[in-house]
């Protein structure tokens, strides 16, 4: 089958899929799995309708243009965790290592392995009666690395960026080998930055292992006691961070969620099978962090206290018999 024919076959299959009333709430990522293609392949079939194919010479310069928008949402996801943060861009920059960070606090926000970006799209679609603008980055498998959504009022500037960078689509995704089933390795080579744990701190005891039920215990405890923490989520080719307190821990189907004003995280709870407590020491002060793993032993997310909450976080761990 030629790549043009493959493109239109995928387009027809997806149109048929969407016409089925049972699929009205299926997201594009899940639809791609059901159709045994990649998310990028499905998105490419919307080019000239609601999607444009984007090209840039420098990822850093392209992100700098996106950071000229007034307010954005950064989104990353693995199979089991979706991490979303909404930020005003006034104090946000990108450094020479492709790290998007807050220049005032020096907090890292999103780290992408930009060399792994193979395809980039912009999309404008209607969602709940509102226009939804986004830039979406994909790896060579057609899997999403990260998505950046406009959450402010600079729609005209978003359109200008699209016009400057959109190019004709040359079926580049379809020209590659067909999408095949694969195990996503979320344990990418990006290092995790811990805001409250000094870089020179050393582990002073062996990691303690627990099952996955610690996730709910810890999240509900953080909300109840209003403890400031760092949430990081690891996705293929990316790590994303949130810093602060959480308020609303909500169940929705099999997902446990934080639904707050500037931070959402959605975790497929029954896929979290184990957790690990790591303990560090420096200058006679102890620090602790928790990480969680899926059934493939991928480290997919972690929580650690912020500097002003180290003691309260330790009390929470002790109260949950984790320390």
Question: Would you kindly provide a written description of the structure presented here, covering whatever features stand out?
Answer:
- With 323 residues, this protein is of the alpha+beta class.
- It folds into two domains: 3-96 and 117-175, Heme iron utilization protein-like fold, CATH 3.40.1570; 202-319, 3-Layer(aba) Sandwich (Heme iron utilization protein-like fold).
- The protein is built from eight helices and 20 strands.
- The chain has helices at 3-19, 28-35, 39-44, 59-66, 155-165, 172-175, 214-225, 310-319; strands spanning 51-54, 71-77, 81-88, 92-94, 99-102, 108-112, 119-127, 130-138, 144-150, 166-167, 202-203, 208-211, 229-235, 238-244, 249-252, 255-259, 263-268, 272-282, 285-294, 299-305.
- It has a ten-stranded antiparallel sheet with strand order 10-1-7-8-9-2-3-17-16-15.
- Strand 8 and strand 9 (144-150) form a beta hairpin.
- The radius of gyration is 21 Å and the shape is globular.
- The termini are far apart.
- Residues 183-187 have low confidence and may be disordered.
């Amino acid at each position: 089958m030629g790549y043009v024919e493959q493109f239109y076959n995928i387009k027809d299959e997806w149109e048929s899929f969407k016409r089925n009333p049972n699929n009205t709430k299926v997201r594009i990522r899940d639809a791609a799995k059901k159709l045994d293609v990649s998310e990028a392949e499905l998105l490419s079939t919307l080019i000239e309708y609601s999607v444009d194919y984007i090209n840039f010479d420098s990822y850093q310069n392209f992100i700098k243009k996106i950071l000229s928008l007034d307010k954005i949402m950064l989104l990353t996801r693995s199979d089991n965790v979706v991490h979303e943060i909404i930020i005003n861009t006034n104090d946000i920059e990108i450094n020479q290592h492709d790290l998007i960070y807050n220049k005032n606090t020096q907090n890292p926000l999103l780290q992408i392995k930009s060399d792994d970006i193979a395809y980039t799209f912009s999309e404008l679609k209607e969602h709940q009666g509102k226009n939804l603008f986004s830039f979406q980055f994909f790896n060579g498998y057609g899997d999403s690395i990260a998505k950046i959504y406009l959450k402010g009022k600079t729609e005209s500037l978003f359109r200008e960026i699209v016009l400057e960078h959109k190019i004709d689509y040359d079926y580049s995704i379809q020209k590659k080998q067909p999408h095949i089933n694969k195990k996503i390795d979320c344990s990418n080579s990006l290092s995790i930055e811990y805001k409250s744990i000094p870089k020179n701190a050393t582990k002073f005891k062996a990691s303690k292992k627990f099952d996955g039920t610690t996730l709910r215990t810890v999240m509900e405890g953080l909300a109840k006691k209003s403890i400031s923490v760092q949430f990081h989520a690891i996705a293929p080719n990316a790590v994303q961070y949130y810093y602060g307190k959480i308020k609303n821990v909500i169940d929705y189907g099999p997902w446990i969620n934080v639904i707050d004003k500037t931070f959402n995280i959605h975790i497929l709870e029954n896929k979290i099978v184990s957790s690990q407590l790591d303990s560090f020491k420096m200058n006679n002060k102890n620090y602790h962090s928790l990480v969680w793993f899926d059934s493939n032993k991928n480290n997919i997310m972690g929580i650690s206290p912020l500097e002003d909450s180290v003691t309260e976080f330790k009390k929470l761990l002790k109260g949950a018999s984790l320390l």
